[in-house]
């Protein structure tokens, strides 16, 4: 049996946004990820392509024999002076495809997936430390995107980067033998499911040695002992994916929001009456939208008040997708790791609530209470900005912390227990099981009244002509800052795994994944 990974985890927060050529001002967040000096260095009118060049740096990167981190880089372009922004399509897929350059500096490669909606910048060799690369080049197929050579002369481009963690293909255990875990071998056998492929799983009302389902008690969820087939198309966690290293931060949300049209912004406004209902600080959320551009004073803080429709909109816009509840368990527990009863994301039940913030909350703040590794318990923080709500993404991790101290999952993704509820695709009802795991394409709904919704028809909550506007088929995992007991933070707890809640609440956030194809 493989032992739990003991990689050192460093302070790894959210993402940084660069705006570039013909490019817009650079925003440098304190997480260490920077994409700078963006420019278009070459146009090929015969092929309808343009080469985009940039420098990239991020701290505390790793690659080892288990997995690695990466940065998902994608771009938006505008041909109307920034009124609308469309998604850039790259020219070729594969590793270091023709015309691209991995630049100079740290040895990295450029992986462009088959849909060519962005690229992963990732290490080639097994090393840890800072990645710093100058003059990375990617190739934009502007003709495919409907841009003419004349339009290209005045086009605007924004580059975005999201820190990701690679989750390799492999079998794992789902469920942990507790009464709140939904996956057991049978009604009389509490051993967890063993997910060893992406093949269909027949869930049956069996006494032992099968795949048995236990309800979380949510409305519209199948009853305990229900029989159904979990189809091949539903992502079961076996296949390789990339997952966001952190929950969506306020800075990431503002970067997304400010690329939308006015109508799209209206539907995605978390400061309105359907959300925090204020442009002031509420439950530590600092986002304000009083004019065309939204702002945040705490860009590294995890972003609450995200509904299922909000999360899906961000995922579609960034060419990512939501994760399933089985993928959630694989990301936390790891490949072929025996389940610990009631275990948290870091592989045991040892938990200390964060209570004391040390330093100004500018992305460098830390926690001063010993062994703190989780944001839960509805604490009113002392120090820093005070108040009750989520903390900076990655705040528990340092350059020398263990997995437990960092509050990290097996593969290095952070805060899967506590801080904010993670919104996932449930397998607890037929709508969730119909999820085909498609990635977003960078484009959002344009139908009047529903502008800014995700458009993937297989995602829970989708309605024709409206995009993802509901939440049936979704649920919550991992607990939040607001919960006062630790059982909600457990990896296999399904108390809200099929909770159909379309609202924006102070303790709901989330992150996205991408199929590794």
Ordered list of secondary-structure elements with their pairings:
Blueprint: E1 17-20, E2 34-44, E3 49-62, E4 69-78, E5 86-87, E6 94-95, E7 104-105, E8 108-112, E9 119-123, E10 128-140, H1 149-152, E11 156-167, E12 172-174, E13 183-184, E14 193-195, E15 201-203, E16 212-213, E17 228-230, E18 241-244, H2 250-257, H3 262-267, H4 308-317, H5 325-333, E19 357-358, E20 366-367, H6 403-406, E21 422-425, H7 430-433, E22 462-463, E23 467-468, E24 474-477, E25 513-515
Antiparallel strand pairs: 1-11, 2-3, 3-10, 4-5, 4-9, 4-11, 6-8, 7-10, 8-9, 11-18, 12-14, 13-16, 15-17, 18-25, 19-20, 21-24, 22-23
Mean pLDDT: 93
Strand content: 15-25%
Low-confidence stretches: 1-30
Major β-sheet profile:
9 strands, antiparallel
Helix content: under 10%
Count of DSSP-assigned helices? 7
**Distance separating the two termini:** 28 Å
* Number of beta strands: 25
Shape: globular
Look at the helices and sheets and give the structural class.
mainly beta
Rg, alpha carbons: 22 Å
Structure description:
Helices cover 9% and strands 23% of the residues. With 517 residues, the protein is mainly beta. Strands 1, 4, 5, 6, 8, 9, 11, 18 and 25 form a nine-stranded antiparallel β-sheet that branches. A four-stranded antiparallel β-sheet has the order 2-3-10-7, with no helix packed on it. The chain has a two-stranded antiparallel ribbon with strand order 12-14. Strand 22 (462-463) and strand 23 form a beta hairpin. The two termini are 28 Å apart.
């Amino acid at each position: 049996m493989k032992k739990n990974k003991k990689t050192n985890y460093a302070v790894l927060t959210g993402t940084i946004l660069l705006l570039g050529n013909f490019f817009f001002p650079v925003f440098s967040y304190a997480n260490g990820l920077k994409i700078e000096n963006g420019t278009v260095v070459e146009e090929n009118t015969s092929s309808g392509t343009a080469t985009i060049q940039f420098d990239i740096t991020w701290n505390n990167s790793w690659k080892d024999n288990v997995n690695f981190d990466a940065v998902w880089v994608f771009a938006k372009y505008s041909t109307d002076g920034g009124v609308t922004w469309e998604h850039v399509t790259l020219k070729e897929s594969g590793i270091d495809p023709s015309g691209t350059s991995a630049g100079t500096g740290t040895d990295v490669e450029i992986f462009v997936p088959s849909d060519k909606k962005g690229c992963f910048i990732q290490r080639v060799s097994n090393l840890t430390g800072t990645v710093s690369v100058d003059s990375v080049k990617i190739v934009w197929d502007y003709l495919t995107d409907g841009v003419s050579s004349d339009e290209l002369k005045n086009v605007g481009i924004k580059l975005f980067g999201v820190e990701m963690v690679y989750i390799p293909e492999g079998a794992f255990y789902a469920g942990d033998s507790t009464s709140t875990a939904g996956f057991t071998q049978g009604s009389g056998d509490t051993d967890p499911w063993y997910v060893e492929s992406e093949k269909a799983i027949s869930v049956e009302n069996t006494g032992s040695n099968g795949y048995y389902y236990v309800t979380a008690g949510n409305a519209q969820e199948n009853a305990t002992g229900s029989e159904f087939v979990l189809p091949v198309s539903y992502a079961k966690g076996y296949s390789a994916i990339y997952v966001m290293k952190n929950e969506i931060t306020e800075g990431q949300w503002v970067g997304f929001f400010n690329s939308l049209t006015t109508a799209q912004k209206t539907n995605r406004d978390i400061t309105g009456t359907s959300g925090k209902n204020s442009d002031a600080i509420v439950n530590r959320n600092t986002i304000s939208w009083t004019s065309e551009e939204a702002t945040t004073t705490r860009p590294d803080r995890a972003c609450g008040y995200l509904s299922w429709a909000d999360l899906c909109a961000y995922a579609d816009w960034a060419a990512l997708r939501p994760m399933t509840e089985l993928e959630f368990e694989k990301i936390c527990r790891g490949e072929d790791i025996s389940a610990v009863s009631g275990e948290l994301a870091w592989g045991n039940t040892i938990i200390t609530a964060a209570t004391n913030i040390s330093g100004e909350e500018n992305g460098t703040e830390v926690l001063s209470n010993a062994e703190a590794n989780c944001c839960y318990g509805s604490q009113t923080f002392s120090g820093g900005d005070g108040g009750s709500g989520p903390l900076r993404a990655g705040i528990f991790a340092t350059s020398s912390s263990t997995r437990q101290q960092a509050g990290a999952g097996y593969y290095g993704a952070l805060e899967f227990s506590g801080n904010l509820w993670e919104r996932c695709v449930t397998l607890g009802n037929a709508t969730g099981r119909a999820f085909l795991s498609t990635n977003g394409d960078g484009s959002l709904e344009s139908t009047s009244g529903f502008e800014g919704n995700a458009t993937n028809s297989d995602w829970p909550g989708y309605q024709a002509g409206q995009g993802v506007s509901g939440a049936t088929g979704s649920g919550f995992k991992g607990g939040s800052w607001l919960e006062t007991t630790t059982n909600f933070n457990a990896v296999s707890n399904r108390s809200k795994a099929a909770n159909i809640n379309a609202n924006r609440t102070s303790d709901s956030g989330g992150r996205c994944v991408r199929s590794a194809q």
